[in-house]
Write a structure and sequence with these properties.
By secondary structure, the protein is of the alpha/beta class. It has one domain: TIM Barrel, CATH 3.20.20.140. Helices cover 51% and strands 14% of the residues. It has helices at 3-11, 27-37, 46-51, 58-68, 75-91, 103-107, 113-131, 147-156, 182-190, 205-213, 230-239, 247-252, 264-269, 281-284, 288-298, 303-316, 321-337, and strands at 14-20, 94-101, 134-142, 166-170, 194-199, 219-222, 242-245, 273-276. The protein has an eight-stranded parallel β-sheet with strand order 1-2-3-4-5-6-7-8. Strand 5 (194-199), helix 10 (205-213) and strand 6 (219-222) form a beta-alpha-beta unit. Helix 1 runs antiparallel to helix 15, helix 5 runs parallel beside helix 7 and helix 16 (303-316) runs antiparallel to helix 17 (321-337). The longest helix has 19 residues, at 113-131. The radius of gyration is 19 Å and the shape is globular. Bound molecules: adenine and zinc ion. The site of adenine has 11 residues, from helix 4. Zinc ion is lined by residues 18, 20, 170, 198, 221, 279. This is Adenine deaminase. Pfam families: A_deaminase.
Length: 338
Amino acid sequence: MNEELLQLAEAMPKAELHLHIEGSLEPELVFQLAERNGVKLAYSSVDALRAAYAFNNLQEFLDVYYAGMSVLLKEQDFYDLTWAYLNRVHQDHVVHVEIFFDPQAHLERGIPLDVQISGIRRALEQGQAELGISFRLILSFLRHLSEDSALETLELARPFYDQLDGFGLDSSEQGHPPEKFARVFARCKELGFRITVHAGEEGPPDYVYQALDQLQVDRIDHGNRSMEDEVLVQRLVGAGLTLTVCPLSNLKLCVVKDMAQHPILSMLKKGLKATVNSDDPAYFGGYVNDNYRALIQHLPVTRDHLYQLARNAFEGAWISDDEKEAHINELNRVFALG
Ligand SMILES: Nc1ncnc2[nH]cnc12
Ligand SMILES: [Zn+2]
């Protein structure tokens, strides 16, 4: 394996644009929070829990993911979760994060929105002050629930609009197309928010078309199956739309058979603005640098690919042009040295 490339991937400044904060809940923290909150777990040890992280598809993962959240009850729990993630990615030279949270999964368990947002944001603000990691917070709707539930959640979030930067759509994709949420996202747009939705992870290219045509998305999360439709690829290229690709997630959820078949380099070759992200790092075997490492190990990644992937993330981030330029200058500096 190419040690030089690995070192460069590790050292380069990075933005992470596709991260579910609940998916960064490591088994050790599950047990710690379960004990603190008196929650009974179905697993006898950290190892037993980790052993359950074997999935054949998205739904098998989601069942474990929603069960894992049962330990998140208090503001401090959401803070601890987010703070652990930020400290972890600080080691990976991540300098900007745009993270999702799934409020409906917590509201269903009786956890108020202000508890969730306040804990997550307290850690994000501390991360900005102490670790120099800037952030955006994205409220993600659960697509297996109804559009009315999403609309209610959007209304419930009204007092917190100034603490949110955008809206997303995640959970079980097949059978829950973007068009199901057309009214919700039209409202989000009216309110002036940016939008990014999971599309083409397991769902067909048509779901990506719907995200573009019916939701007017600003980014696509995953987007892998766009590669099946050349017209769609050209449209995404023409629009310069960022794809937040998640290699280890794709492997663990059997979206790709093995890493050597991952489409990310073909995406770059076609001019798609692909980026590298961890999705749910506690469940999929690694954080951002682990994703880069897996790509370098199994695909003919070059220095130019690394640069393009890192640059795409800064360009696709929901930050000002001046901020993008500052990050890209720093990226250039690291590449000139390395
Ligand atoms: N990879 C993923 N796809 C859809 N919903 C998710 N929620 C958390 N991770 C997800
Ligand atoms: Zn995701």
